[in-house]
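Our preliminary data section would be incomplete without showing what the modeling component actually yields. Below, a chain of 395 amino acids is followed by its predicted structure, encoded as tokens that our downstream tools consume directly.
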Amino acid sequence: MSAHLARFRPGMRLLPLLTVLPLLAGCDMVVLDPAGDVARQQGNLIVISTVLMLLIIVPVMALTVFFAWRYRAANSEATYKPDWDHSTQLELVIWAAPLLIIICLGALTWVATHLLDPYRPLTRTAAGVPVAAEVKPLEVNVVALDWKWLFIYPEQGIATVNELAVPVDRPIQFRISASSVMNSFYIPALAGQIYAMPGMETRLHGVFNHEGDFTGFSANYSGAGFSNMRFAVKSLSADGFARWADGARGAGQSLDRAAYLKLERPSEKEPVQRFASVDPALFDAVVNLCVEPGKMCMHDMMSIDAKGGLGMAGVYNVRDLAYDKFAARGSASTTLKPRYVAAACAVPMAPSKAPVDRPADLAPLTGAGLSRPSRPLAPERTARNETPIPGRPLI
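Predicted structure:
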């Protein structure tokens, strides 16, 4: 019997590893194998950083086991030096190796932080494929609602709920905001996450390199319906995207401010909706927190504050503020009625276009305080056909 069990003992050692395989089957490697160039660069950054850290972690773990075994009390062959306390060679290895890795990680992080800045316009759609000067990014306005996502396409004049469709190999510029609480807009296959905050606008640039169906979601907890705050993402060909936009125009629904206020109400597991038309000024009203009729926009309020306030002329330009209780909250007095500004003379808010991005700088990055040479080469260097080094002054 013992000989029979010994025959199967090597296979039994692998049994714990086999039990882990079903757990790994549910892993989604979209972060390390995405469909967009920006997300792919971010995934490569994760891999490179991990490998650099493993260069010090693996040897330390291996040497820990080696020293514990080599210098165990039962090993009489190991050299016993109770008074040993210093080795210059060992100190150099201990301090130099981590220092070099930290320098490499710092340089890698600095460059990636600038090149993968979500506000930075794309300079390429794939490795070795620069963005042509005549290519116009697709603008998509994103609004995080409770608990759903609204997408507005100003160029196409349509809007959708919980469905995002974009053409492949075309840069995408997202303008992102929220209606009430902070969320996080995240499409792992496209690019990194960026926050959506009420009263503010954030931006994100990305591109898909091949067609497919993906998933986006909120990566920041925002209440009861957070778990189902997901949306479908479709990467389509140029013709497929045109057909999809034509289908949205045939939906028949119109997204004006009244429809938005109904859509803004909290709801969970909202099905996909498409709107054939949309108010051109809706997204700017959402950012300025003035979708409701008669509510002052933030840009008007900031304009008034910049000019020193309403002054004495605005004392009478107020209305009573109605609460859901008879008395003012936090006040024991019933004679003084709270008031709010009803209107002010301000320039009407016109529908704005996406902020014009400055052309992407294709020149190599330089460190802080290191300017690129602006004057021509010295005559003696020109004669030797030397070229300037970025960040190094010419002599």
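Residues 311-341 form one domain. The two ends are 86 Å apart (CA to CA). Preliminary results of this kind motivate Aim 1 of the renewal.
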